[in-house]
Amino acid sequence: MADRRPVPFRGGGFSPIPVRHAAAIGFAVLLALWEFAVRHGLVSPLFLPAPTTVVAALGDLWTAGTLWQHVSESLVRLIGGWCLGTLAGLAAGLAMGVWSLGRAVGVPLVSALFPIPKISLLPLLILWLGIGEASKIATIALGVFFPTVIATYSAIDAVPRNLIRMAQSFGLPARDVLRKIVLPGALPGILAGFRISTSIALILLVSAEMIGAQYGIGAFVLQAGNLMLTDQLLAGVLLISLLGLAIGTGLTQLERRLLRWR
Q1: Please, which residues have CB within 8 angstroms of residue 167's CB and are 6 or more apart in sequence?
Q2: Contacts with 94 (C-beta within 8 Å, 6 or more apart), sequence order
Q3: Phi, psi of 66 (to 5 degrees)
Q4: Residue 33 domain-assigned?
Q5: pLDDT in tens, 132-154
Q6: Number of folded domains that form the chain
Q7: pLDDT class for 12, splitting at 50, 70, 90?
Q8: What does pTM read for this prediction?
Q9: Looking at residue 81, which CATH number applies to its domain?
Q10: How far is CA 165 from the centre of its chain?
Q11: Distance between CA atoms of 98 and 77, rounded to whole angstroms?
Q12: Would 204 disulfide with which of 41, 72, 74, 143, CB 3.0-4.6 Å?
């Protein structure tokens, strides 16, 4: 009788395997190479200061009290614009996903308006809303609106139709079909759209602040670049990177909380 050997399990389904400290090690290696290149004269510190110099410049800004002023101004604009654009995008994407007339009207409009660079509309928004915060928030909201609409509409459209038909065949009300089947099924795609929209919001935030703001991370980076203060310039870039990393971490935690059923 032949020996029976257990068959190895091969149904992982591409499930991600956590690799502890991999990201931290990758960042540490990159920073070490950067520091080494500057310290040994391979790269000019005038054009690319060492990481320790950038961190020192960041500490000086914190001590001087200007760091929080720039960051707080940017956070108000970022949160306000992203929330407005996301709420409007979710409503429009939901209407396009479940309403035939909304889809017939919305898809051509979104296809026509989405390719327009939103930062190019900032001068027009300044004419309409003034040079203050409203024009910058509106620019960010416009940039967030369209990817949110597309992500929401596409995610709803990707929900399996047999699940919806089965619920309807059992007489489930349309409101319950939407709440218990359509929205949970579309949630992964909507959350993935949030990652794209937050990145676009950061890009538009910095661009808008470079054009028409006295305070903010974008204004600070532009001013440091004009004065050739590359250590402060990279400190501003580091702030943008840390802000994006914090947003990405927050979205990851939100996904884990909302998508436990997967």
Answers
A1: 176, 177, 180, 181
A2: 152, 156
A3: -85, -20
A4: no
A5: 899 999 999 999 999 999 999 99
A6: 1
A7: low
A8: 0.86
A9: 1.10.3720.10
A10: 34
A11: 32
A12: 143
